[in-house]
Write a structure and sequence with these properties.
Layout: H1 2-6, H2 20-30, E1 35-37, H3 46-55, E2 64-68, H4 73-82, E3 86-89, H5 94-104
Parallel strand pairs: 1-2, 2-3
Helix pairs in contact: 2-3
């Protein structure tokens, strides 16, 4: 929700999910250019979602930014181990989030 509010004034097409299972389904259906993923989600946590996305050919190369309150070193390390592209801790500065998003989005 925080990321969605930070991106409200931008021209991105956002697709959201209420839990990890829906996040996988949405990624498979919409083939996004970038995925923002929280760790703490119902039904399947962000680590598992990220790992599954990396196992699928269609999303293997899609940038995944973990955005979470879980800033402990063990969680950051696990995020990178399961394949996240970058790890952002909440609270974040909206302009920094936008900068990271633009860094990882494909250039047209």
């Amino acid at each position: 929700m925080m990321a969605q509010m930070a991106l409200a004034g931008e021209s991105f097409l956002l697709v959201t999910a209420k839990d990890g299972v829906e996040a996988l389904d949405q990624a498979r259906r919409h083939h996004p250019d970038l995925i923002l993923l929280d760790i703490v989600m119902p039904r399947m946590d962000g680590f598992e979602v990220c790992q599954r996305l990396r196992a699928e050919a269609e999303t293997r190369e899609t940038p995944i930014l973990m955005i979470t309150t879980r800033g402990e070193e063990a969680n950051v390390e696990r995020g990178y181990e399961v394949g996240c592209t970058d790890y952002i801790c909440k609270p974040f500065i909206p302009s920094e989030l936008l900068e990271k998003i633009r860094l990882f989005l494909p250039r047209n």
